[in-house]
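Quick start: read one record
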Amino acid sequence: MVLIERRVIEAAKDYKYLLNRGYNAELSLNLVSNRYSLSKYEKLLLYRCIHSDEIAKDIRSKLVPPTEVKGNVLIIDGFNVLMTVTSMLEGDTLFLCDDGLIRDLRSLRSRGLLIESPILRESLNLVNNVVNELSPSKVVFILDKQVSWSAVLSRMVNEVTGFDVLLSGRADKEVIIRSTEGVISSSDVVILMKAPKIYDVAGHVIRVKGYSKIIDILKYLKEGI
């Protein structure tokens, strides 16, 4: 069983309280981080996994069942989804956040080191298998072309899947624009707040694999340690 320190839970509660009161997220995070002496990792946990109740509820309301993916266009935030699956395969602790999405805590910079790893290809195969089961009418796999290894990954996606790969100068904006075409898959909160329908492909893969190193943030917020 994966546990989390009481100090971090108390920090998360305070951070959520401030967000619910309408305080600026960055200032609130810095205040809480200083008070509880959070590490960079712990601070990132709060940033990615704790939202105001209003935002968390809004995102949860837009999560759709797998049946809604069938026959619809699926727009995948490529780096975001693929690297969460990669984090699982490498044994990282993952987090079920208060908005219902499963997230990892890696930075994109560290992720770039994985491009030559066979684990990345395995991650792509797992995503491809799940997407095939979901039976969307079309898959658009969007990558940020500003990331140095995006072209290499694009070729790999073409080799392994039947996805339509799109390299974009602003991947997040591209996902948002295309979100009206069908269902999006991402854990980027900026995208989630603007998308009408959301499906957590990475979360689907993780659950199918029966991965156990997942911390349920909402449970801790409600029950404590």
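The CA atoms of residues 177 and 195 lie 9 Å apart.
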